[in-house]
Specification:
It contains 18 helices and 27 strands. By secondary structure, the chain is α/β, with parallel strands linked by helices. It folds into 4 domains: about 130 residues, Methane Monooxygenase Hydroxylase, Chain G, domain 1, CATH 1.20.58; about 150 residues, Polyphosphate kinase middle domain (polyphosphate kinase like), CATH 3.30.1840.10; about 170 residues, Endonuclease Chain A (Endonuclease, Chain A); about 170 residues, Endonuclease Chain A (Endonuclease, Chain A), CATH 3.30.870.
């Protein structure tokens, strides 16, 4: 029998176009009138920041390929040039939908709630004009640096993602000659400017660029301002670092970070009504192609809506805040090490608090019997208690080794600062491995006890970030298993000393062993199906785009394996292909928490195996990163993790299902129980701590403290 070719390009979806579909699902939350109004503006803000990162990294990378005349096709059979053409069309449509949502739906709804965002300074009343003019002179004017362009002053360097106002000006005595001028809207002043309330109690706000535009003639006193319009550019922000040539990786990354502000311009956003003469100058000076210009009907850069979301007095237009619950197995005030010895502990964030992970490090730092702490750090919060605890541990004489991944995209500068601080405290800091990103989440604590040395380990699917742990769904495991402890030691020896162990007890580590492990687990299910046995795979992850893994899934599906995938973001696999993927379903959940955990379930003829990991099924995770796959071995914990998967697959409110047509559709609710999996887990966590009220909990969310806390796609992309 001839072996079927599962690698045909028509069996695969292009990665970038799949990502746009994901951001469209986020946009649907902004358009969903069932969501509270302020939650909707939050989701619209997120789509904007997501799109920025997509252009700075993914689109920039494709443009680099085109410039280098690299024309190799992707798994879907598209060249970089073809991808850029499709992306341009899709993103222009996407932006149009964003602003249609903003203008036609959100602005009127906000006004109905007595919150009026004045779109243009020309709409101001006389009283408001006076207020704005005084505000400008007292608070804004001293900060501004207007820049004119003429024969002696070249076109200035425009910073990446900065908001600017471009103008055409003419000398009062030479009105026929036009010159270009620009001023950057200062990021040090809040973009949202509150105005005096109306007599009817309506709250009025205006954006800072409108305040500047109204007063722009005060910046060019000897000129007439012919026109003035805001614009914003996006630059290539993908760092290019030759690690083999870089003698000092830390210094090289610092040097490259400065270049990020001045990379090639790849996208220009302008006000829709911009004067054609002004646009022509920007297009020429920034070397922007027509297809990379986005003419916007509304304020540029909708991320300001996240600041609006944080305004006081509008809690009734948001979901009630949810407080992460205590972990039942951990008793406050008792030694966490004694409690881990009673049995493995599963942590489910943000439904359960992240505090046990922080306390694990804090107690280890203070415990006189702890000899060593070893940890990998990829992204941490701005004021991380974990960093403070590690520094304290070193000062207390513990052996502290920390791998700080300097190449964590958009967190490089933050991580350089932490690395230096830890070194000053006496920690041994490792800056990752050449050519690889260390993305694994592992902590090892070595403790001297009465019966000898014992190793305590935390393994997780998400970062050691106490801030994002309130926003992202992740899983963690606390254990003192001897087998896992021995493997953890081997992991850190590999990271610090480049010594590869000959074998592993139960962990699987990328980039050497993990791909083969996943393929063998999938093939085992395939073989069982071919023998007429029940075969079942459930996999939850952020993204699926590795061709080798998808081919294995296609083979398993064709053999009769039931495959249920829960994929938040990118999915290059297609469902419903006859004889190929008829047994595969794909569900995407976009809710108030960012789905981030990675879980892999294999039926194994009734001997169910469940794994958790820091890795998605992406080529970068399997081949170019240090990642860890770890088993859930305790039967009671296996049931808990399987329960999480079952509830997510039963979601009928926030789930979308991938169809054979390539579109995602909401679940058909007819005859089904209405279930929001995230809401369910919130209720469940409260009930497990006997704090559940009789009133049904509504959908919930903790607002992002800062848009910068959002994990980039490095994770999303």
């Amino acid at each position: 029998m001839e072996k079927k070719n599962f690698g045909k390009p028509e069996y695969y979806k292009n990665r970038e176009l799949s990502w746009i579909l994901f951001n469209t699902r986020v946009l649907e939350e902004a358009r969903d009138r069932n969501n509270p109004l302020f939650e909707r503006i939050k989701f619209l803000s997120i789509t904007s920041s997501n799109l920025d990162e997509f252009f700075m990294v993914r689109v920039a990378s494709l443009k680099d390929m085109v410039n280098a005349e690299y024309d190799k096709k992707d798994i879907a059979g598209m060249t970089p040039e073809e991808q850029l053409e499709e992306i341009s069309a899709e993103t222009h449509n996407f932006v149009n939908t964003q602003y249609m949502t903003y203008n036609r739906s959100l602005l009127p709804a906000l006004k109905a709630e007595q919150l009026h965002l004045i779109s243009s300074h020309e709409e101001l009343s006389e009283e408001q004009k006076n207020f704005v003019d005084v505000f400008f002179m007292e608070n804004v004017y001293p900060v501004l640096t207007p820049m004119a362009v003429d024969s002696s002053r070249p076109f200035p360097l425009i910073r990446n993602k900065s908001l600017n106002i471009g103008a055409l000006i003419s000398k009062k005595e030479k009105s026929e000659e036009l010159e270009f001028a620009t001023v950057q809207v200062p990021a040090v002043i809040p973009r949202i400017v509150p105005l005096p309330d109306s007599e009817n109690g309506e709250k009025n706000i205006i954006l800072l660029e409108e305040v500047i535009e109204r007063n722009i003639e005060k910046l060019f006193l000897n000129y007439d301002v012919v026109c003035a319009h805001p614009y914003r550019i996006m630059r290539n922000a993908d760092l290019s670092i030759d690690e083999d040539e870089a003698e000092d990786l830390l210094k090289e990354i610092e040097r490259q970070l400065k270049k990020r502000q001045w990379g090639e311009a790849i996208r220009l956003e302008v006000e829709e009504s911009m004067d054609k003469r002004l646009l022509k100058i920007l297009k020429k000076e920034l070397h922007i192609k027509e297809e990379d210009i986005f003419k916007i009907s509304g304020p540029l850069d909708l991320t300001f809506l996240m600041k609006m979301y944080g305004m006081d007095g509008y809690e009734h237009l948001k979901y009630p805040k949810y407080k992460p619950q205590p972990v039942p197995e951990i008793v406050e005030g008792e030694s966490i090490f004694h409690q881990i010895r009673k049995g493995d502990i599963l942590l489910h964030h943000p439904y359960q608090t992240f505090d046990p992970v922080v306390d694990f490090i804090k107690q280890a730092a203070r415990d006189k019997d702890v000899l060593a702490i070893k940890q990998t750090l990829y992204r941490v919060s701005g004021n991380s208690p974990i960093i403070a605890a590690l520094a304290q541990a070193a000062e207390n004489g513990k052996q502290v080794s920390v791998l700080v991944e300097l190449k964590a995209r958009f967190d490089e500068e933050n991580n350089i600062g932490w690395a230096r601080m830890l070194e000053k405290a006496g920690c041994h800091v490792i800056y990752g491995l050449v050519g690889l990103k260390t993305h694994s989440k592992i902590t090892l604590v070595v403790r001297k006890e009465e019966d000898g040395i014992r190793r305590y380990v935390h393994l997780g699917t998400g970062n050691y970030n106490d801030a994002t742990a309130k926003l992202y769904t992740d899983l963690g495991l606390l254990t003192c298993s001897e087998r896992i402890g021995a493997d953890a030691t081997a992991v850190f020896n590999m990271l610090s000393g480049y010594s590869e162990p000959k074998s592993w007890n139960c962990l699987s580590v990328a980039p050497i062993w993990l791909r083969d492990k996943f393929v063998s687990l999938i093939e085992r299910e395939r073989d069982n199906a071919l023998q007429g046995k029940k075969a079942h795979i459930i996999a939850k992850m952020n993204s699926l785009c590795d061709k080798g893994i998808i081919e294995s899934l296609y083979e398993a599906s064709a053999a009769g394996v039931k495959i249920e995938l829960i994929i938040r973001g990118i999915c290059c696999l297609k469902v419903g292909i006859p004889g190929v993927s008829e047994n595969i379903t794909v569900t995407s959940i976009v809710g108030n928490f960012l789905e981030h955990s990675r879980i892999y379930y294999f039926y194994d003829n009734g001997n169910e195996e469940i794994y958790m990991s820091s890795a998605d099924w992406m080529s970068r995770n399997l081949d170019r990163r240090v990642e860890i796959l770890f088993p859930v071995e305790a039967e009671d914990l296996k049931k808990k993790v399987k329960h999480i998967l079952d509830i997510q697959l039963a979601d009928t409110l926030k789930a979308r299902v991938l169809k054979a047509s390539g579109v995602y559709e909401r679940v058909d609710k007819r005859g089904k129980e209405l279930l929001c999996s995230q809401e369910y887990f919130c209720e469940e966590a409260e009930k497990s701590n006997k704090k559940c009220s009789d009133t049904k909990i509504q959908r919930v969310f903790i607002p992002e403290e800062s848009i910068k806390e959002k994990e980039t796609e490095d994770e999303l992309l």
